[in-house]
Amino acid sequence: xxxxxxxxxxxxxxxxxxxxxxxxxxxxxxxxxxxxxxxxxxxxxxxxxxxxxxxxxxxxxxxxxxxxxxxxxxxxxxxxxxxxxxxxxxxxxxxxxxxxxxxxxxxxxxxxxxxxxxxxxxxxxxxxxxxxxxxxxxxxxxxxxxxxxxxxxxxxxxxxxxxxxxxxxxxxxxxxxxxxxxxxxxxxxxxxxxxxxxxxxxxxxxxxxxxxxxxxxxxxxxxxxxx
Length: 227
Prior knowledge:
Blueprint: H1 4-27, H2 32-35, E1 39-44, E2 47-55, E3 61-69, E4 72-81, E5 84-91, E6 100-107, E7 116-125, E8 128-136, E9 142-150, E10 153-161, E11 167-174, E12 179-189, H3 191-198, E13 209-210, H4 213-220
């Protein structure tokens, strides 16, 4: 016979496990079913571009752009990706007043044989999808990313994994031929703390170098991560 206290303990454990699994699928960035539901409506000059991504096989995806003018479909074009896709976002990365496409893929490279999360950026040239930056690499292994419009320029904000199994949050901006490192927003954080920073509009004054974690996290009401 299970006592009332034992039943309460078991229900608490079940709730913790369920919450952990839900958090993982929500924030891991690998939930490919979410990618298939990603639809964006973009206004570039006189064009309205409806952007979405479709799975065309186990690891094949298509970025598809339907281009409208005066509410009439003018043409459709696409760009194939031979990799798993874990995320798509949009924003004016290179600050040319035209919306770009940020795509998170999972692939290996010539210099790194391990399949990891990487970032591709595409531009929309008169409605046509074209590569803007396929360098893919950031300073540490990528976990997640988001386009952020802060100050007077577009910024790519990332979560990256540290060697001690903690996480950092960094920002990158366009430097003419690709993404350039700006600064860290925080280091040695838990994944929960890192996602809170990724999704907030709080940022420190623009400058080079390390931005210490505690002031940022105090403003978010977060405790410092335990080491």
